Amino acid sequence: MPSVTNILVIDDEPATLKTLSAALGVMGYKVTTAVNGREALALIRKQPCNIVIADIKLPDISGLEILEATKKLNPETAVIMITGHASIETAVDAINEGAYAYILKPVAINELETIIKNALREQRLLIENRKLVESLQQSNRRLEEANRALEQVSQAKSDFMAKMSHELRTPLNSIIGFSEVLLSNTSPVGQATHEEFLNYIHVSARHLLHLINSILDLSKIESGKMSLESIEFDLAVLLEDVRITVLPMLATKKQTLEIKIGEDVSSIFADEAKMKQIFLNLISNAHKFTLTGGKIRVICRLETPHWLHCSVIDNGIGISLQDQQRIFEEFGQVETLRFRGNGVGLGLSIAKRLVELHGGKIWVISEVGHGSTFTFSIPLARKVGYLNAQ
Ligand code: ADP
Predict the structure, then answer these.
(1) Residue minimizing CA distance to atom 23 of ligand 1
(2) Ligand 1: does its nearest atom lie under 6 Å from the Cβ of 350?
(3) How far is the CA of 271 from the centre of ligand 1 (A)?
(4) Residue 167 region, left (φ>0) first, then alpha (ψ -120 to 50), else beta?
(5) 258: β partners
(6) Mutation to probe ligand 1, out of 285, 290, 319, 364 (largest number of atoms < 8 A from CB)
(7) How far is ligand 1, taken at its centre, from the CA of residue 341, in Å?
(8) Which pLDDT belongs to residue 266?
(9) For 224-273, how does the pLDDT look when each residue is reduced to its tens digit (9 = 90+)?
(10) pLDDT at residue 44 above 80?
């Protein structure tokens, strides 16, 4: 609705038109006039008006058609019909069709003024009401969206719990099963089997501990309790530390590790311990999913002066495009390629959270049979580290 009150008066009698528009003008309204229905419809379409005052009997079309067209264009416009005694029945029909009021000829200006004031008041209320309903509907939509998001979170939590219970049960069952055999005097267990069984129990218990530690890490990150403790450190020193840590593991499969750091990368500002964990998780995956004698490379370089990109590249079994979608989810292991008892399916999701904690991103490029490249990028601006650390 326009901010000035626009009134359109339609009457084929020039005298009535003149009197009405003069009186309404004095009342402070902006008045437009039309002498027939066609002209009136053109004006209504051109500019929305608050009030239409229309003679019920026009030379070309009836006042009822004006009413219908006005309401179609703008349901909030109040239409007041002017009628003679002879067409009072049509005026009543007009009220039933949505006209605000009718007024008899000759028009009493005082009466018209009261009708207009009431119509404008109702119009304001209608508009406010509509806005209120609209904002309520919007709030409802937002609430529904929030609800849906909550449902998804809750579903994700349930899925996580179900997968976690499954993952915990597997090593526990094996510990219980093997220890029961050892404890039972009924089955003759030779020395070799004895040791074998103890070894199975040991491997499962270690796996269980690894799983529980990973879950604790993940829940710490999730609950927001893990914050960054960023400091300035030498990336080369950190990677040397990582190399020494993983060497015995790589030696078991005669795998080589090559580390390349761009000349422009020296000391960086990040959380040293978390960066180490990211590298360890990625390198231990590269080790697990690469055959004996495989090659693992770590390449770190500055993508821009403020972004560090680090890639862990292997020439292992690779990951199909479809599986790449879910490996960063908790327990997102690739079932067909799963190396039994080796992983818990949390390493990548922890690495992803740690990278994100630094304000960075992690992704994979891989082809089955040709190896994988896991790359993470983190911003190096000091500001980011300080902000996150708080
Ligand atoms: P896991 O404890 O099983 O290693 P991760 O979350 O670290 O769990 O990895 C999820 C899955 O992603 C792995 O089980 C494996 O299927 C796949 N994956 C991760 N890294 C590699 C890699 N370098 N090569 C091939 N597959 C990988």
Answers:
(1) 286
(2) no
(3) 24
(4) alpha
(5) 297
(6) 285
(7) 13
(8) 80
(9) 778 888 999 999 999 999 999 999 999 999 999 999 999 888 889 999 99
(10) yes
